[in-house]
Amino acid sequence: MIVINNVNKSYVKGKKTIDTLNLEIKNGEIFGFLGPNGAGKTTTIKMMTGILNADDGEILIDGKNIKTEPIQAKKQFGYVPDSPDMFLKLKGIEFLNFIADIYEIPEEERKEKIEYLTKEFEIYDNLDETMQSYSHGMRQKILVVSVLMHNPKNWILDEPMTGLDPKASFKLKELMRKHANEGNSVFFSTHILEVAEKICDRVGIINKGKLIFVGTVKELRDKFAEDGSLEQLFLEITENE
Ligand SMILES: Nc1ncnc2c1ncn2[C@@H]1O[C@H](COP(=O)(O)OP(=O)(O)O)[C@@H](O)[C@H]1O
Ligand SMILES: [Mg+2]
């Protein structure tokens, strides 16, 4: 469970990138965070994960405050960033072992998990190559595997389908559903509406730093339009703001 209370963020004085954000991601749900490019999705996620500090307000991950109890809070979530371009000098296997060390996953268990998960995502054969040589999609797959490996209750994923091939994307969506159904929470950002429409229990729409809607896809439709595609609807409501 993730709670965001009255969070503000400005990169430039006097210009709010995130404006009074309130959000609750419940256990058992997949929550889609939607918005056009530049809306503030990544900024929000960076504050949730403690990469950036909020100017004020608070963010709690399973009750742990990311600002005042960062280690405790960070143990409660797994994170896949939008640009998976870190630790590129490491080989895939070295990166996964590094993450397994941090999360103290026992030797036997990690071996099993790494083999199983990397085979599932079809990067098992690339584990001995440095991540520098990986495509964007392969880097994302390694990060997804690293999160699944330590199996945190809360998943925070920034545009996770971008760059994944259809098979991996399908697999990830399946795993997101399974994770939520087991009573955990999945929060992910996307600007691709079809994805959100299909798999989210609830969505939040952010535009220019302001949350302009929270609810189910059905509620979204009921509120804004009788018919028409969600895409059309999305264009309308983000344009009118
Ligand atoms: N480090 C930064 N310094 C200044 N402005 C930034 C920085 N990062 C993002 N921004 C600005 O903040 C706004 C929100 O960006 P971002 O959170 O990345 O949006 P999204 O992920 O929804 O596309 C954009 O206008 C972007 O240009
Ligand atoms: Mg982004």
CATH superfamily of the largest domain: P-loop containing nucleotide triphosphate hydrolases
Strand order of the largest sheet: 6-7-8-3-9-10
Number of domains: 2
**Between the first and last Cα atoms, what is the distance in angstroms?**
29 Å
* Fraction of residues in H or I helices: 25-40%
Give the overall silhouette: globular
CATH architecture of the largest domain: 3-Layer(aba) Sandwich
Please compute the radius of gyration using only Cα atoms: 18 Å
As a percent range, the share of strand residues is 25-35%
CATH class of the largest domain: Alpha Beta
SSE pattern, N- to C-terminal: EEEHEEHEHHHEHEHEEHH
CATH topology of the largest domain: Rossmann fold
Report the strand count. 10
Mean pLDDT: 92
Q: How many alpha or pi helices? A: 9
Content-based structural category: alpha/beta
**What ligand species are in this complex?**
adenosine-5'-diphosphate, magnesium ion
Spans of at least 5 consecutive residues whose pLDDT stays below 50 are none
Sketch the major β-sheet: 6 strands, mixed
Reconstruct the topology from this structure.
Layout: E1 2-12, E2 15-25, E3 30-34, H1 41-48, E4 56-61, E5 64-65, H2 70-74, E6 77-80, H3 92-102, H4 107-120, H5 136-150, E7 154-158, H6 166-181, E8 185-190, H7 193-199, E9 202-207, E10 210-215, H8 217-224, H9 230-240
Parallel strand pairs: 3-8, 3-9, 6-7, 7-8
Antiparallel strand pairs: 1-2, 1-4, 4-5, 9-10
The protein binds adenosine-5'-diphosphate and magnesium ion (MG).
Adenosine-5'-diphosphate (ADP) binds next to α1.
